[in-house]
Write a structure and sequence with these properties.
By secondary structure, the chain is mainly β. Helices cover about 0% and strands about 55% of the residues. The chain contains no helices and eleven strands. A hairpin with a 7-residue loop joins strand 9 and strand 10. The N and C termini lie far apart (about 40 Å). The relative contact order is 0.32.
């Protein structure tokens, strides 16, 4: 199994930045990709960005391009989500998730970190 722990959330003003962290442990050798999702109050969970565990490829949803960057520190087994120019609509609980090689769904999830953006 893979354990994921998010951190870095908090209360910020609109226009500010945050860097979220997702620390992975356990059977990380089987990980193929890690993604960030978010769930705003009263809304369904949505995909934000993903990165190959090898670091060779990243993807950010169109509406977040230019404001969100996903990266990985292989030495720390940690994936980051840099969020810039935050807006009130970015308020949500942000989750990281991982999927193993050969799996199409994200099967391991962290507990989430809350981001609140005040306008």
């Amino acid at each position: 199994q893979v354990q994921l722990v998010e951190s870095g959330g908090g209360l910020v003003q609109a226009g500010e930045s945050l860097r979220l962290s997702c620390a992975a442990s356990g059977r990380t050798s089987s990980v193929y990709a890690v993604a960030w999702f978010r769930q705003a109050p009263g809304k369904e969970r949505e995909f934000v960005a993903s990165i190959a565990w090898s670091g060779s490829g990243t993807y950010v949803k169109d509406s977040m391009k230019g404001r969100a960057t996903i990266s990985r520190d292989s030495a720390k087994n940690t994936v980051y989500l840099q969020l810039n120019s935050l807006k009130s609509e970015d308020t949500a609980v942000y989750y990281c998730a991982s999927r193993d090689t050969g799996r199409y769904e994200y099967q391991y999830w962290g507990q989430g970190t809350r981001v609140t953006v005040s306008s």
